[in-house]
Amino acid sequence: LPDEILCSIISLLTVREAATTSVLSIKWRHLWKRTLNLNFDIRNNEFILWVDQLLQLYHGSKIETFKVNHPLSNEYVCQSDEWIQFAASRKVQNITLDLSKPKNVCKLYCFLCQLFAQGRCFSLKHLSLTNYNLSMLLGFGGFKSLLSFTLNLTILLLENLQVLLSSCIFLGWLSLTCCICPPRLKI
Q1: Could you give phi then psi for residue 64, rounded to 5 degrees?
Q2: CA distance 79 to 55
């Protein structure tokens, strides 16, 4: 089969499973490095190092889905920004970030919408954030292609929400769960 089809098949696997396909043959050795879906949902002490190493090995020019489901301590918050920037530079279409600890509300992480500046936001279609505080600087144009927006355990400032929603002309799904919202939220 052509490499594109094999990469598409490998994209259906978790990152760990995709990486194990490298032992199948010489042809398969580097195919996992171009998988279209990066799903980091593993509970171990080496999570940060593991994700960083995998992203350094990644050779794909495009990412369809980027998921991170792992609580981060305060010292590693900048890592999540680097991962988001990495995904944005690969024209990611779907992002799911859950950095919350199970059964425990921990410190909210700051989601910097500016990481999607300079035309990187046009590919983003689905965004799901858990345990975040949205942060936007003046001049951020919004997510023009966003179709669905899911927020859990998130702090929403009225100004930020208005900028985001006014720029999402194709938005068909908005979900707010356990969010801290302004008392008079108008959508």
Answers
A1: -85, -45
A2: 12
- Closest listed residue to residue 56, CA positions, set 17, 21, 83, 31: 83
Cα distances from 55 to residues 52, 115, 149, in angstroms, run: 5, 17, 25
The encoded tokens of residue 64 equal 């369809």
- Amino acid residing at 57: L
Non-local (6+) Cβ contacts of 172 within 8 A are 147, 148
Structure tokens at 101: 């600890």
- How many CA atoms within 13 Å lie on the side-chain side of 184? 0
19's CB contacts (< 8 A; 6+ apart) are 32, 54
What is the pLDDT tens value at each position of the chain, 187 positions in all? 888 888 888 888 888 888 888 888 888 888 888 888 998 876 667 888 888 988 998 988 889 999 988 877 667 777 888 888 899 889 899 999 887 765 555 566 777 777 676 555 678 899 998 888 877 766 667 788 889 999 998 888 877 777 778 878 899 999 989 888 877 777 7
Residues with Cβ within 8 Å of 71's Cβ and at least 6 positions away in sequence, in order, are: 99, 100, 101, 102, 106
- In sequence order, which ranges of the chain are alpha helices (DSSP H)? 3-10, 15-20, 47-57, 77-89, 158-167
Full-model pTM: 0.84
